[in-house]
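Changelog note: in this version the structure field was regenerated for every chain. One regenerated record is shown below for reference.
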Amino acid sequence: MLAVDVEKQLGALKLDVKFEAKNGATALFGPSGSGKTSIVNMIAGLVTPDRGAIALDQTVLFDSGAHINVPPHRRRIGYVFQEGRLFPHLSVRQNLDYGRRMSGVPRDDGEFARIVKLLDIGHLLDRRPGRLSGGERQRVAVGRALLMQPKLLLLDEPLASLDAGHKREILPYLVRLRDDAGIPIVYVSHAPAEVGRIATTVVRLDAGRVVAIGGTELLKDAEADIFA
């Protein structure tokens, strides 16, 4: 389980958030500028909170009072950004293996085969990223993060750069990931129907604060998007 209780001043925005994320997909949902990406960056260790604590299972990742701040590469967290960030000169197979090697995770051919099957990317292994669709690139980015054997997966608006067709293509894989990964997923989005498909818990944010935590019923008053 992930437990977050942090504060951070970011210019005019004061972040003051507290929530927990268990297995399944916890969506950080709110309008642009509400602090969603800054929160996942604090969880990942890319931004340091001013005060508070972050814990993952029994491991304290950050505690301002105890002066604990675990470096990002030691947090065992997989992070998938909006645009995937694959290496263009490497094949899909090499991209998938990169995160595992950089994290010092031993090679596991069985786990590699399981992730490739889960994301349906076996036919892409010898291609370069330039020959992939947007949805395929994001599936490879998710696979690379999972092969690091993370204890937590962060997905920061992974569909934001995709058109409607590619969003529909990748959504079923994200639902499958939610059900099969066996780890907490924190999913950032401002699209209510997208969150409605994926989230098991919704943390609704506004102006840097948590205004509600619950199920997808919290989306009912949000403006519908292209998936509605």
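Spot check on this record: The CA atoms of residues 118 and 177 lie 7 Å apart. The longest helix spans residues 164-180.
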